[in-house]
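Bumping my old thread because nobody answered last time. Still need a sequence for this structure:
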């Protein structure tokens, strides 16, 4: 018997805007999204949380939001910055505020932790968010050897240039076919109408269409891959 392959399909930016919420909900109800990460600072977060409370099959974690950067003139420049990411005290206070806001909105702890534009991959944010994840007994993205992260499903290069093949049906089928044994988190950013000012906007509708394409679910079934959420994964380990 071949080793089982588990796939968590996690949609980042839940709560960023009503259009993003619609895209994530569609990709959950009609596609392969099993999990989402909530941005608690944004006005559409309450709407996202209300949906999640009524649809517990969608696992929801915290998408820590400390800022956003865009690549221009050969450098990454801030679009907005919540707190300086090199200020340990400010980061710790802000992360704690966002955890409290999540619990207030959802009525429970996050199923997992990650961050906007992966700012938790560097210190001191990594240690601070990791500490909060350990308090909740949950996974921090890229910080648990039992859950590998795959960021290949993305419509831009590492410098923000268009990369449409990355979010095509063919690209997703390749990811599915090459999935390793064990548990993989696949990141995605589906969205609906372009109602936000973001460096990643038009790609979201394409992602949603790909995630809902029947060929994708058929391939997952043909490959005997098990779709699950972080909550399902924790229950299986218990």
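Sorry it took so long. Here it is:
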């Amino acid at each position: 018997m071949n080793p089982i392959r588990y796939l968590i399909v996690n949609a980042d930016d839940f709560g960023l805007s009503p259009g993003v919420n619609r895209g994530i909900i569609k990709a959950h109800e009609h596609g392969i999204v099993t999990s989402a990460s909530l941005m608690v600072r944004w006005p559409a977060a309450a709407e996202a949380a209300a949906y999640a409370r009524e649809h517990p099959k969608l696992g929801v974690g915290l998408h820590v939001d400390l800022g956003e950067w865009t690549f221009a003139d050969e450098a990454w420049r801030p679009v907005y910055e919540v707190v300086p990411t090199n200020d340990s005290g400010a980061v710790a206070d802000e992360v704690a505020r966002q955890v409290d806001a999540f619990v207030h909105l959802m009525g429970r702890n996050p199923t997992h932790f990650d961050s906007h534009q992966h700012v938790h991959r560097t210190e001191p944010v990594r240690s601070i968010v990791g500490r909060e994840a350990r308090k909740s007994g949950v996974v921090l993205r890229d910080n648990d050897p039992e859950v590998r992260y795959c960021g290949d499903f993305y419509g831009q290069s590492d410098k923000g240039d268009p990369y449409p093949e990355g979010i095509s049906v063919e690209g997703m089928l390749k990811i599915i076919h090459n999935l390793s044994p064990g548990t993989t988190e696949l990141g995605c950013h589906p969205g609906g109408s372009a109602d936000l000012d973001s460096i990643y906007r038009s790609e979201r509708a394409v992602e949603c269409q790909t995630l809902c394409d029947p060929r994708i679910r058929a391939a997952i079934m043909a490959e005997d891959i098990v779709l699950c959420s972080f909550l399902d994964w924790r229950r299986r380990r218990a």
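Helices lie at 18-29, 45-54, 88-106, 125-136, 169-177, 202-211, 214-222, 230-237. Let me know if any region looks off to you.
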